[in-house]
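Section handout 9: paired folding examples.
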Amino acid sequence: MMRTGFVGGSIIRWRRSVLQKTSMDNRAMIATGAAVGIAAVITARALTGAGSQFEPPLLDKREHQVAFGYVEDENRGENPMNPPIFREDPYFWVRDDARKNKEVIKHLEKENAFTDFKMKPLKKYTESLYKELLSHVQETDSTVPYKHGPYEYYTKTLEGSSYKIHCRREIGSEKEEIILDENVLAKGKKHCDVGAVEVSPSHQLLAYAVDSTGYETYEVLIVNIGTGKVVDQALTETAGRLTWGRDDKHLYYSTFDQAHRVDKVWRHSLLDTKNNDILLFEEEDELFSAGFQKTRSERFMFIGSQSSETSEGYMIDLTKENTEAELIAKREKGVLYDVNEYRGKLYIITNKEDAKNFKLMSTSVDQPGPENWKEVMPYDKDIKLDLLSSFKDFAVLYGRQGGFTQMWIVRGDDDALTRVEFEEKAYTVAPGVNEEFETTNYRFSYSSLTTPMQTIEINVDSGERKVLKEQPVPNFERSSYESDRIEVTAEDGTKVPMSLVYKKGLLNGSDPKPCYLYGYGSYEISIDPFFNSKLLPFLDRDVVVAIAHIRGGGEMGRMHYENAKYLKKKNTFTDFIACAEELVAKKITTPDRLVIEGRSAGGLLIGAVINMRPDLFHAAHAGVPFVDVMNTMSGRSTVPMNFRLRLSCISGLSLHLSNSHPQLVHIWSC
């Protein structure tokens, strides 16, 4: 069964879940880049060498003025320029949020046809590469079953199938029960993305959310697991997150506003035939997004809202009939906090009182206000705290130290912390699926650049660990590869880490090697060192793979992010350039053998660096790049989203492809 959202019961953890999802998307980005990047130079040569009888389609230019600054009846932030200034955008007419403009669709079809024509010389190569990538994937596989009530739940995949199958079996039995087959659900649909999949407290009902449009708007179906009959499908436009209450009567969900911002949290009653759902919370400020999470003890539902700099939370006692939410701490600009329940108290991770990397505090349930918060542990500027996952007799604290994810076990009346140690120099740890509240065992995932994802269970009493499963990777021998972590001195003297992975012994010689350098550097999202089988075709061809942990990300803590925001955004770009220069200085590679990639906000990075230093790179892949910053931020329907984008993008940035370095190949993909 797929778990979505949070692992603990955190009040603002929906933002963390978004970041975790984005981080997972970045893993997919790197994976995609592995296939794209490895063929980048060959692709580039094909694009420049293919025949000219098929000309690229060109868009018509149509006059349109875009306003920067004050616009009547639009929220343009505090103190917008008045009068505004205007910029001509001859391609404004192409924007089609409804995806129904026939003229635009026809142009896209022509672009696809042109791409197919240009890529035709590479068809055999790409098919061969695809087979090679597939050779490292065990298609028929299953996750480690986890205990939840009287059952063990898990998901599996079958060779030739595109989607997961959600299963369970009674504890002590080997008889499998399929509760949801996404492959069946996807039949006849052009798009199928399953969001939350949640079993009810009685284990008799299953609620799941599915997006059939690609717009990330989810319909919710509730089925009787025993009969397969749909018992409720009243919810049609949700954000895809679901949580049951203490019983099968109530289901909690959230919805979007017109700008696709999560702004409302609701309680749905399965017994109410009139569908009079109760609105529990509404966030009107366009800078904030709403979310919700039930504690593992099932006592509280935390509801609240957060921007990138400020948060506010409420709690509802689920043991009472009252649905009124009690305020925990009123929003205060610049103050973030994240709340969980542990041993009958509220535990808060917050940056209150200038704790840049956050500290752990607590208070009683009856006195949730910030004036009652007490420090659980002294603030340590070298440790960034992120998440507390709580159980009946212990809790697990996640954060970062020394540039890596770390986890600590919290035990005893004095809340003593014990860090879980690992042997490898560079690694990534993350919460696993842990449904049981009363337990002494805790599951988490572990991975490194040379270690496939492991599911590990630790006994918090004895400290004993068991590797329950390591992700099978066919045609992979871990001893054939090695990884390293080096520090790069940025333009302003800041130390920026960079991770490397390559075939063992490859760097023993003095000859420069081809190199693939990936970067992101936005939203405090960390690109951590994890295993990715899609990088193996790189490594097996003697390519060095490097990840630049540049500022704008969160690898080195909150300040690593803060020092690449607003007018400091340029640090993201100069950090990446410094990493590339270090690879050249160490004779690991040369500019004519260096390929770079970034996607989405990382595409902004790529657009910037190839303009700043076109001499430093041979090929660049900007995937779904965010490069038209000012124009995008002035779009009426995206203004709320782009207020948040302003936190990581520099105002006034415009990108122009350099034509003074024809040896630099630009690949832009959407």
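Moving on to protein 2 of 2.
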Amino acid sequence: LGCCRELSLGLVGPPDMPSVIFLDLDGVLNRTRDAPHLRLDDDLVARLRSLVRDTGAAIVLSTFWRAFEEYVSYVLSRHGIPHGTVIGRTPGRNSSFDFVTATASEPAFRSRAEEITVWLATHPEVASFVILDDRPSAANGDGTVGEPLASRFVQTETSVGLSDANVARCREALASKVSDAEKSVFLQAAGLAPPKSHDPRGLVDTAPGSVNEEAQALSRELSAGKLTALTDLNLKKAGLAALPPQIGELASLTKLDISLNTLSTLPAETSGLSSLRILFSLGNQFESIPSVLRSLPRLYMLSFKSNRLTHIPEDALAPTIEWLILTDNLLEELPASIGCLKSLRKCMLTNNRLLALPDSLLQCRELELIRLADNRLSDLPRGFWQLPKLAWAGLAGNPLVARAAPLPPPRWVAPAELEVGEQIGAGGGGFVHRAVWSAQPDEPVALKLFRDAGTVTDGDPAHEIDVGSALTHPNVIRVLGATPRPQLGLVLELLQLNKASTGGGWGELGKPPNFDTCARDTYPAGTTFGAPFVLRALSGVAAACAHLHAQQLSHGDLYAHNTLVRHDGEPKVGDFGAAYNYAPLGAEAAPLVERVEVRAFGCLAEELATRLAPAAGDESEAALQRNLLGLAREAWMGAAVGARPSFAEACQQVEALARAYFEAPPPFPW
């Protein structure tokens, strides 16, 4: 969190374990295949000693003799290999274990390759490894493990043992880091990969795949001029290399999705889309936004997420745009003409290469939300934090918020420690599963599994993992640990969902924004809240935010849909994917950053206050509604950013409202 991309992306697992040598003994450190007792040849051990000294590698015993780990370590130390170089052994038992009764319950594996694979799957922190053995079964077993082991296998000749040529190959293997793809193979082969998550809202469908036959059929009808009356056209995964020019005949079209094709241009006829409000072009091959789009008179939302954008022409952006999504591209700058987007409310720019923002952005006075994580920003336009409606900002992974020292690391949880169960949630950043953690087997946990970093609109999941160690407040969802690459995740306290109405669990306070509300949350039709519920919810959220900002941490995405509430209004704030540390911004900016987030709190308070439903004649609740709306709109959402209260002051203001409502000083009913 709050550090430049190079630093933050390093915090994706426990510190790397030294490179590992999986070591057989017979046929490697002696010249026989089945020695009746443990013996080593001095010249062969000397080669191993040199390899360990020069590479800093540790040794994991994969040999038949591994049941006698301490004795083998002692013998190697007598040959000059330092004590402590042997750090463990592979799992599984063989006949040697019959002599060691404490390990008699070890599972039996089909091959040495399978044993090594399981060890690697449970130690994802390994930086690199090599397998030294005279038997090919150490690398390929029964053929199910595959290339990752075989490419790192150095086979000795039994009658020769460890040769200089073998040592040279070991050095090459140890110099090559284990990739995330290799780690994924180990997890799959060991049966430790999490279950496949499902994506009910299509939020994670960002990669081209097989052609969608229905979309392809629609594209053929479009080319034949048969779709003129449509208002909504979905050509996602239609296999298009070019958009048919007949698209310009759809004058009534309001929403168009051309995502996950191979498009790089739009036909001039696109200008005929006079009613188009929403255009999705995710996962195509555009290097520039086509200028033809500026001519669209009603364009409201434009998405070119995950393309190859390097340039935006000055005449490309329609001035009517309110919602602009350019996440995951190659942009180094924005056009000065972005200042012409006077109605722009939401701007998504995460994971580009932006070096600076144009001063003209300050002309976007309606801007409420901006995502800037994982760029190369070292400064912001003077006056950025004074934008009157800005409430949600994300900056993690930029040099301007680089920390001198990282936050304390989380507790890293290996895949083998988790038994992953049913999926209980999904969002733009990934999926949430119920799980059992061996560290607390009687208390289930929630496991949040992140998806690909580059396509997450809030920023790289490493930022949320970074900040986890600082989240210690009763009104914040408790972070228990994190899972390392290749499957980054967070282990969280499990709050039982979907029982809020019965008093037995927790539910979302609100729902995410939709196309109409843009930056503001939504609520099911007919939603109302009681006064004690609202006061308790706002009191807890304000307290959680005061705790964060006392550490100069900004949530960045403070919303009702990121807050879980109990039936009585007790809240838990979660989803810190946009969080960042703003201390490096300096003393002048710090109070403004906090007060930008106070506006987000004001938006939340306004949404709850408007859903109070005072009964006829209930003057106390009617007065609360009037006072809360006034406080939210005039103080917390006021146009003068610097005049807004801090979160500590907001806590006191909520307490004053509660005191007036209950006509008594605290403690209040909660």
